[in-house]
Specification:
The chain is an alpha/beta fold and 127 residues long. Helices cover 31% and strands 13% of the residues. It is built from 3 helices and 4 strands.
Length: 127
Amino acid sequence: MAKDIISCNADQRQNLLAIKRLLRRKDRPDGIVAAVEKLAPLVYQACHELSLRIPQDVKVICFSNLEIAGMLQPALSTVTQPAYEMGAKAAGLLMRLMAGKRTEMEVIVAAYIAERASTKGHQTKRK
């Protein structure tokens, strides 16, 4: 599992190379979750350079809701987290803790998946 997780940094070139290494493997993943929105276009670029088709060869989804998600070809599926609600709940927890009150530390907030073309369709079988 850990071999399927790549760490990225501020260097876009290095990030692109890391994504391409992942996608060149014989046992490459059939889907990528870009945890940081700026990585999604790099996944698209890597797929293009390696002649991999989205979503037929690799499905792609990204956290956040990039404004360009619908403009990418194919349109990028996204997971949107309610940032305001998360911040409000975190602030409420902090205030209760600072007041010395016992509080539940697990908070669950709903996320929204905008399924677009980058995750649809059937996967092609690899040889």
